[in-house]
Each structure stands twice: as structure tokens, then as C-alpha cells.
Design a protein that fits this description.
Helices cover 63% and strands 13% of the residues. It is built from nine helices and seven strands; from the N terminus they run H-H-H-H-H-H-E-H-E-E-H-E-E-H-E-E. The strands form two sheets. The protein has a five-stranded mixed sheet, with helices on one face.
Length: 358
């Protein structure tokens, strides 16, 4: 079985058109140069050159893979060159022997044929090593290009895995941040003895049952994000019905676009936590999702306390979100905060509009 595989591999490499073409060209050039003053028939001249070329090509091909192991000090390319050069006299002699069968005297006793043999041998020794070396250079260059391509593909795969791991790490930081904040809101209602605590807790349980499986997804759609945000705002509205109003404005064309998990939720949660909660009179949150040229634009406007003059514009959640967007869209996403008059904040994220293929 191994011998059959080796044989198949040898003939497959030997009969490649690129190699056969070199033999035909190498045979055609000296034939054209010598044909005018050659006494033997034209077909004999062509046959000898092709025969010698194929024999040298066979030796070149054989020593590409055999023997499988060589001493470290002896390079395979050197073995191939030496083998081709050493085969030239043998190939020329056998070519003359096969094309002069039955002639008397034998070719090695005929001065004209001996002279022709010398011309064949000299010309082949002059040209064949250079053809061999050039073939080896092309072969080495091709192998180097293939290896470089393989390394590049492997590096890209490692980068992709590292990126996925980084996104999942950031996502893992989002999950407890959101869950603990939401549970803290329920605890406040319980501690204050609010009669809404039980209803809010029930809504929260229903929300978490639907939301938690999505938190581990590396990517979702705008539609899923909007459903998640609507459920979250319903829970927050039950907690503070007189202090929070909200409305969602979503362009239908954006619903099937790719949206990194919890992108919209993070913006809305940030508006509730840092805008509406600290405000005595509460406020309103408006969520807008639309297309802006080739980008999907997400805006969350709140009429809360606004940005503190000496405060940090991006907290932990938004800083995390900015990095996740940058990783997910290879740096082609933007996130910034803008003040809203007379008070409030507009958190705006823009990223390439990529439709999710189901």
C-alpha cells in the first residue's frame, strides 16, 4: 500500500504539465540549433533530446522525496543537482544506444556518432544544472510562499480565537454588572416595604428567564436587543412608575441587523442608573434605532441629571461597551455621550450595518 502511494505520488509529480513543458522547451531549443548540420534523421534528434530530458526529470523527481531522511549536513537540493549531473552521461549513452540498435558499427565505434555524443553530453552538462537550479529556486520560493500563507492563516485563526476570548471576557463582566444592579433595585423595594416589590420581583423573574440565555451570545440582532430593552424598561417602570417614562422608536429596516449582545441594554441601563435614578423628579428615556448611510445608529436620550461638569463621561459599563464594539467591528464603531438641553444625556453608538444571514 505504501509502495503504491509512493508510486502514485512520483508519477503525479513527474507528469505535471509545468515540468513536461520545461522538457519540451529544453528539447526544442538544441534541436533547432543542431538540425541544420545534423546527419541523422530529424526524429532521431528530437527523440534523443526528449528521452534525455525525461530521464533527468525522473531523477530530479525521484530525489525530491527519496530517501525520506538525509544527513543534516547534506541538503536535498544538493542531492538533486548532483544526481542530475551524474545521470547526464548515462542518459546520453542510453539515448544513443536505443536509437542506434542494429546499426553496424556500434555508435561508440563510429567517430561521427562519438562526436555527436560529445556534443549532446557537453550541451546537456552546460544547460541541465542551470535548469535544475532554477527549478529548485522556484520550488523553494513556492514552498516558502505556501508556508508563509499557512502561517498567516494560523495567525489569523489565533487572532480570531483571542478576539472571541476577549469579547467573552468583556461579556462576562457585563452579566454580573447588569444582574447585580437589577437585584439591588428589587432589594430597595423590599427594604422600603413597597407593595410593588412582589410584582416587580415577578416581572424580574420572567425577564431573567428570557434574558439570561441571550447574555452569553457573542452577537444578536437589533430585534432581540429591542425585546430585551423593552422587558428591562417594563421592570424599571414598575419600580418607579411616577418617575420613569419611556418610548422606543425603531426603524423596521434595522431589526435584522447584527448588534453585539447587550449593546442597547447597556446604554439604557446607564441612562436609568446615572440619569433617571439620581434625579428627584425622574425623567424620560427615548430609544432610537435607525440607519445612517451604511451605519446602524443607536441613540438613547434621557432627561435625567445630565453629565457632571467634573465627572467622567464614560463609566465602567460604557467603557466596556466601547471596547466590545471596537472588537466586534474591527475598530469601525463609535460611542460617545452628548449633553441634552436643558438637562440630560444622549448616548449614541454607530456601527456598520451588517445583516444577519439566517
Amino acid at each position: 500500500m505504501d509502495a503504491a502511494k509512493i508510486s502514485d505520488g512520483f508519477f503525479a509529480r513527474l507528469l505535471r504539465w509545468q515540468r513536461l513543458r520545461v522538457v519540451l522547451v529544453a528539447a526544442a531549443v538544441p534541436t533547432a540549433l543542431l538540425a541544420a548540420g545534423w546527419e541523422s534523421p530529424y526524429w532521431v534528434l528530437v527523440t534523443r533530446w526528449i528521452y534525455i530530458g525525461m530521464l533527468l526529470l525522473s531523477v530530479f523527481t525521484l530525489f525530491e522525496r527519496w530517501p525520506r531522511r538525509l544527513p543534516r549536513w547534506f541538503a536535498r537540493w544538493a542531492l538533486q543537482v548532483v544526481a542530475v549531473v551524474a545521470t547526464i552521461p548515462i542518459a546520453t549513452m542510453s539515448a544513443y544506444a536505443l536509437t542506434t540498435i542494429g546499426l553496424d558499427p556500434p555508435w561508440y565505434r563510429d567517430s561521427d556518432r562519438l562526436e555527436g555524443f560529445g556534443v549532446f553530453t557537453f550541451f546537456t552538462l552546460l544547460v541541465a544544472p542551470w535548469i535544475t537550479v532554477s527549478a529548485l529556486i522556484r520550488q523553494i520560493r513556492g514552498e516558502a510562499e505556501k508556508q508563509a500563507l499557512a502561517f498567516e492563516l494560523e495567525r489569523s485563526e489565533y487572532q480570531r480565537k483571542a478576539l472571541d476570548a476577549r469579547i467573552r471576557l468583556l461579556q462576562a463582566q457585563v452579566e454580573p454588572h447588569f444582574l447585580f444592579n437589577t437585584l439591588a433595585n428589587v432589594r430597595e423595594l423590599v427594604d422600603s416595604g413597597s407593595p410593588q416589590a412582589s410584582a416587580v420581583l415577578g416581572s424580574l423573574i420572567a425577564y431573567l428567564r428570557a434574558a439570561v440565555p441571550r447574555l452569553n451570545d457573542p452577537g444578536t440582532t437589533v430585534r432581540q436587543e429591542v425585546d430585551l430593552v423593552r422587558a428591562y424598561l417594563e421592570v424599571m417602570h414598575m419600580r418607579m412608575p411616577d418617575r420613569l417614562q419611556y418610548e422606543l422608536h425603531v426603524q423596521p429596516a434595522t431589526l435584522d441587523l447584527r448588534c453585539p449582545s447587550t449593546t442597547l441594554l447597556t446604554l439604557v441601563e446607564n441612562a436609568v442608573r446615572h440619569g433617571i435614578d439620581p434625579s428627584e423628579e425622574g425623567g424620560r428615556i427615548d430609544v432610537h434605532v435607525d440607519l445612517n448611510d451604511a451605519d446602524c445608529r443607536v441613540r438613547v436620550l434621557d432627561t435625567g441629571v445630565g453629565i457632571a461638569p467634573d465627572g467622567d463621561t464614560l463609566g465602567t459599563g460604557l467603557t466596556n461597551l466601547r471596547e466590545r464594539l471596537s472588537l466586534a467591528f474591527a475598530g469601525n464603531a463609535r460611542l460617545h455621550l452628548l449633553p441634552v438641553r436643558p438637562h440630560g444625556v444622549c448616548a449614541q453608538a454607530e456601527f456598520p450595518a451588517q445583516r444577519v444571514v439566517s
